[in-house]
Specification:
By secondary structure, the protein is an alpha/beta fold. It is built from eight helices and nine strands. The protein has helices at 34-39, 76-84, 116-126, 131-145, 160-171, 190-205, 217-223, 241-252, and strands at 13-25, 49-61, 65-69, 91-96, 100-103, 178-181, 209-213, 226-231, 234-240. The protein has a six-stranded mixed sheet with strand order 5-6-7-3-8-9, with helices on both faces. A three-stranded antiparallel sheet has the order 2-1-4. Strand 6, helix 6 and strand 7 (209-213) form a beta-alpha-beta unit. The chain is globular. The relative contact order is 0.18.
């Protein structure tokens, strides 16, 4: 089972993933019941199941920027969700020093029927910000997202691009030391992506740790010094980002 903790046993380690594995059922997820999880019961692989991740071991030092690459369906987003604590592994552990600020799914943590204003307070509050802190940063969040005219609009009526903008604006204001970013920024327009990237540069300069999933090589080379290449749920190579991308391109002929 995956276990997140507030302190790593080795100084300077932000994330330690040890022997991590998780199974899914084809066409629908074959997960353990909540009763089984509480009882600590292990489950044998059943017909139709596959390992989305298997025996993945990684240590990430504080302040590192890690790019995660691989074809679709190879376990990249699953790894981020396990690190974020929104999924429970079938085997292995995840240890976290501090908290995480996840930008993994556009709608993650947001409630369709609540207004943008209410969602900002709800999401930021769930991530540990006090009402006073949110009050002090609310205008900055809305200005960054460029949605001042939609503050009292139900979240469900926003476009995909607007949802990305408000999600990133909120998450990037959190003071958590680890930032998890999936492909969601690809939905935004070019001008806003550059604005987000400038903010990521600022966070990295401030010592944040970044886990970044992307198919965009330019972005990976811009932010990351180290890469993880996942294929069929296994870690193929862990090394300098240029070497990892070269290996990935050699395997699949991407450019």
């Amino acid at each position: 089972m995956s276990v997140a903790s507030d302190a790593s046993t080795t100084s300077g380690i932000a994330i330690r993933v040890d022997g991590l594995g998780i199974r899914f059922r084809r066409n629908r997820r074959g997960r353990r019941s909540f009763k089984d999880l509480l009882a600590g019961r292990k489950r044998r692989t059943r017909p139709g199941e596959f390992w989305a991740l298997r025996d993945v071991t990684v240590e990430v030092r504080q302040g590192e920027a890690i790019g995660v690459v691989g074809r679709n369906g190879q376990g990249k987003s699953t790894l981020l969700k396990l690190v974020a604590g929104v999924m429970v592994a079938d085997e292995g552990t995840v240890e976290i020093t501090g908290g995480v600020a996840p930008l993994i799914e556009i709608t993650g943590g947001f409630v369709d029927d609540l207004t943008v204003r209410d969602n900002v307070y709800l999401t930021a509050g769930l991530h540990g910000m006090s009402k006073a802190q949110i009050d002090g940063r609310f205008d900055e969040i809305i200005d960054f997202a460029e949605i001042a005219d939609f503050v009292d609009t139900p979240y469900k009526h926003l476009s995909s691009g607007m949802k990305v903008r408000i999600a990133f604006a909120v998450i990037s204001q959190l003071e958590e030391p680890i930032l998890l970013v999936d492909e969601v920024l690809a939905v935004g327009d070019k001008a806003f992506r550059e604005k987000c990237y400038a903010r990521i540069d600022e966070l990295l300069a401030g010592g944040r740790t970044l886990f970044f999933v992307s198919h965009n090589e330019r972005d990976l080379r811009r932010f990351c010094t180290r890469g993880l290449y996942l294929d069929r749920g296994a870690l193929v190579i862990d090394g300098p980002i240029d070497e990892v991308l070269d290996r990935y391109n050699a395997d699949y002929g991407t450019h």
